[in-house]
Write a structure and sequence with these properties.
By secondary structure, this protein is α/β, with parallel strands linked by helices. Helices cover 39% and strands 27% of the residues.
Length: 314
């Protein structure tokens, strides 16, 4: 099991990670999401042993990773930017990996390259960003690691390559029982493959749960108001977001219940239908709700939000 326990990490006097914990089991795909500057890449670099945490621990099957080459051999790491030795050809990098990693499978690399079609005689400096990402994924997975850590692995990939990437990743997890931690802004992709999710917010774990639990936190509804929704509908506190096309209103609500549905019918609804909410929409609504609470707090303190913002910049 990959286990992160209560780690802290800062630069100079600024704390980036504050008491972060998570775990990834073999055969599990765990998603890591959050806004830019939430601390995702710093966390991943602590998990892969690039950085040493100021406090806390990162272990793989009970062994610390930092400054531990024997553990690092068991971990594949695809960074958000992969350059390698730029004057090497792809085939030369494969040769180097063969010599560095005892379990490296050239056969697996070649098998996947029949799908990704990288020119093996081409120098790495001439590869596009998407090609470098494909190379990194193939090299790190051909190491046959026990755990695979991926930081924005679909960056630079076209839609067809993204679909193949997710397909290959799922097959690898199912066949080899590896544990995967993946950070991505492509929430639609994560929704399709992840078993569980950790949401970081300013270096703190804001939410951590299975994908099903995460998606059940809020409910999306299609509601029909044949005569249009009145002002009272917009003031119902459970409704976090509402929009409409004609008489059909799309709502995202918290604390969905029979009593809430009765409120809608009382306000003139003729149909209330729950529908699937995407991870991306869930994330956006939660962020909007958080920002709304901050503004309400500032206003209740007698401060103008714009003035507070300006002061914080000075």
């Amino acid at each position: 099991m990959l286990e992160v326990k209560n780690i802290y990490k800062g630069y100079n006097r600024e704390k980036v990670l504050k008491d972060v914990s998570l775990s990834v089991m073999p055969g599990e795909i765990h998603g890591l999401i959050g806004e830019n500057s939430a601390g995702k890449t710093t966390l991943i670099k602590c998990i892969t042993g690039v950085y040493k945490a100021d406090k806390g621990s990162v272990t793989y099957d009970g062994d610390e990773i930092y400054d531990n080459p024997s553990v690092k051999e068991k971990v594949g790491y695809v960074a958000d930017y992969n350059d390698y030795i730029k004057y090497y050809t792809v085939s030369r990098m494969v040769y180097m990996y063969e010599n560095f990693y005892p379990k490296f499978s050239k056969e697996k690399f070649n098998e996947w390259n029949r799908i990704f079609k990288l020119p093996v005689d081409k120098r790495i400096l001439s590869l596009s960003k998407g090609q470098k990402m494909r190379l990194a994924f193939m090299l790190e997975t051909a190491k046959q690691p026990d755990y695979l850590i991926l930081d924005e692995p679909t960056s630079g990939l076209d839609p067809v390559a993204k679909a193949r990437f997710y397909e290959l990743l799922i097959n690898e997890v199912e066949q080899q029982e590896i544990g995967v931690l993946i950070s991505s802004h492509n929430l639609d992709g994560l929704e399709r493959i992840c078993d569980s999710v950790t949401m970081l917010e300013h270096g703190i774990v804001a939410r951590q749960m299975s994908m099903e639990e995460m998606k059940s936190e809020l409910t999306k509804l299609n509601v029909v108001f044949e005569g249009g929704a009145g002002k009272a509908v917009y003031e119902i506190p459970e409704i976090l977001r509402i929009s409409n096309v004609g008489s059909i209103y799309s709502m995202v609500v918290k604390e969905y219940s029979e009593d809430f549905v009765k409120k809608l019918y009382k306000q003139g609804a003729s149909l209330v239908e729950p529908v699937d909410i995407s991870l991306e929409e869930l994330f956006v609504v939660l962020e909007e709700s958080k920002d709304s609470k901050v503004k309400e707090s500032e206003q209740s303190d007698g401060n103008d939000p714009e003035e507070v913002r300006k002061d914080s910049v000075k």
